[in-house]
Amino acid sequence: MSLSSVISDIKKIKIQGATNIAKQGLLALSSEVNSNMSMNQSQLLFYCDQLAGSRPTEPLLHNGLAYILQNSNVQKEQIAAMVSRSVADYLTTIQKSEDLIIQYGQKLIKPQDQIMTHCHSSLVAKILTVAQQNNNLRVINTETRPLYQGRITAGELVAAGITVSTIVDSLAAAIIFNQQKNNKIHKIIIGADALSWQGDVYNKVGSFSLALAAKYAKVPFYVATESLKIDSDNQIIIERRSSEEVWPDKPQQVQIINPAFDYIPAKYISGIITEFGIIHPTKLKLLVKKNYPWLIIKKK
User: Fold this and answer.
1) What are the pLDDT digits (tens) for 96-113?
2) What is the pTM of this model?
3) Superfamily of domain 100-292
4) Phi and psi of 168, rounded to 5°?
5) Are 166 and 151 spatial neighbours (Cβ–Cβ below 8 Å)?
6) Which of 7, 18, 42, 257 gets the highest tally of CB atoms within 10 A of its CB?
7) Of residues 38, 30, 42, the one with CA closest to residue 3
8) Cis link prior to 265 (omega < 30° from 0)?
9) Among residues 9, 113, 169, 193, which one is catalytic?
10) How far apart are alpha carbons 57 and 287 in whole angstroms?
11) CATH match of 3-99 with 1.10.3720.10
12) What is the pLDDT of residues 134-178, one digit of tens each?
């Protein structure tokens, strides 16, 4: 698939999920560069800017582009090989991180636990799938309007043999808060699209209401994510999506507010499940600076 097609599909959310966006975007960039062996650094920067602009709230992709560009001080004839090598290295780091996160995450889950999740995180789905091998899990997941990504989650979990109940988004907080013995939520585990240096999380809109309810109901609230989703500029922009996604034939006078993501302050998060273990949000900055020093673009 061409780079322009991948960029279009990312914008239309035909390609969705932070990790999937990063993988497909970077592979398409590598393919584009290798199809034009005369590419110079200015052209490479142009392509990187085009890809970065496809989704403003996807640091995992943006950091991959930063990793490529920090290696780009090479001769023109070496650019294609440099991009291929950098993309391969970065995607290998993502995969190793995912493997570790799945190990740490599945250890959180106990037999008979009922877990709530929101939207679609391939990483959360993998954690739950692995945990199901030793536990009789139940999962409550939200349908995740307006694009219903929660249905992807439900399909993956059912295929793994997990009992799933899908609910409308507006019911989630009530279920968390009104804990009942036979319908208790033991833990909430969601993914993330972006992280701040302070350990705050940005995830699909609706996530904050789950975190808020969990705080008051004393339900542990975890975020499973690669620490490479940290926004190195610490200037996260929450994308506003088209009103067409919410109400295609709305009255002209009605204004639609359709942010793609929620902001979840670190104080509402019990722990972040990272490649470094399950950490308190305030520990994130130190670990990222130690393990990924190339991300320190500006003073943090």
Assistant:
1) 999 999 999 999 999 999
2) 0.91
3) Translation initiation factor eif-2b; domain 2 (3.40.50.10470)
4) -70, 150
5) yes
6) 18
7) 30
8) no
9) 193
10) 22
11) no
12) 788 999 999 999 999 999 999 999 999 999 999 999 999 999 988
